[in-house]
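Following up on my earlier thread - several people asked me to post the actual chain instead of describing it. Fair enough. Here it is, all 431 residues.
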Amino acid sequence: MITEIVPESPTARQLTLRLLDQLFGSKLPQGVGVRLWDKSYWPHEGQFDLTLVLNHPGALRAMLLPGTEVALAEAYLYNDFDLEGNLEEIFELDDTLRQVTLGWHRKLYHLNELRHLPDLKNERIGGRPPARLKGQPHSLERDREAVTYHYNVSTDFYRLWLDRQMVYSCAYYHNDREDLDTAQTNKLDYICRKLRLRPGQKLLDLGCGWGSLALYAASHFGVDVTGITLSQPQADYANAQIALAGLSERARVQVKDYRELPEPESYDALVSVGMVEHVGHKMLPTYFKQAYRLLRSGGVFLNHGIATGLAQPEISGPGLIENYVFPDGELVPISTILHEAEQAGLEARDLESLREHYLLTLRQWVQRLEASHAEVLKIVDEPTYRIWRLYMAAAAYGFKTNQLSVYQTLLIKPGAAGQSYLPFTRQDWYI
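Reply from S.P.:
Thanks for posting it. Predicted structure:
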């Protein structure tokens, strides 16, 4: 009698190693390695720029089986896997995998292999709940809700990794050795010089954040500044800093939407830093028409915002940032920004990319966040910390690879006869 020999089922470790070979073997970027839950390494033991740590035998299943960006991110947020080292490396791997086309039979094979791993997903306890906004996108009520969601982690959290002036946007570096505090002061000064602010002028800061630019423009350039934000905690912080500096007669911050400003032709200059990303594509005509209406004849508008690059990959469905960071945020190419501004009657006079500057800014933010890990956990929990660590590293990779860029666009409202009232050169912008 012949006894049939049934092959032994592979262990979770064996199956994990086989999947790693099949999925990543020839595509793993140099400097990336994997450490398993039993402290063994793949493809080999060594020192890596980034180590992907699989924390339990079901880690790959938790990461890959749902097949969505959010599920993969949540596997990191809740420690099914960890990332040690330079997080930007993981996005290089992600880009590589997006370019791989698998036949349906190969996809089914990998799916079946993943299903044979243990279903050991860590409990989704604590953490920042995903945004669940109500109403019509980019309505007044929903935009307020979106901004409130982003900043509800508290000012103290942001204070741990932002610069001392609390500037939550791209810094401006004279070289790659400057520290964050210096570079953010550079940026505030550079914007004021681009606007050519003079004492007694009226400046409106759209989306003023914690009031750093409003405070700087009032104290260093002698202008009268009104800042608006949709975040009450930001307004409270900004007005407290303005009062502390003795500048309450020249600067104030109000909780108000840009669509709620009633004063036509009231301002000599407008500035918007990091707000246009939240306006929404369909609302850009309203945004720029409002800017045109608020400016006096010959007034200037500096619009500073992130735009998509030509290399931006297509992503199906809401991802980590949409769900956990910036709900309803929308990025468009710079050509769309320019088109809508010109359609509103504004004239583009200068365009400057600061892509490399934002890359440096984000890298310094990530470094400061990681260095403050213990202090951060006194304010938020580990999953919330990981959200910001992951999203800022992802953004840095986007700027590095030209999937994202950031532009300062200088616009004017021409005089009745077409006058620009601008100097012939930019010489006065530079020190």
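The first helix runs from residue 12 to 24. That should answer part of your original question.
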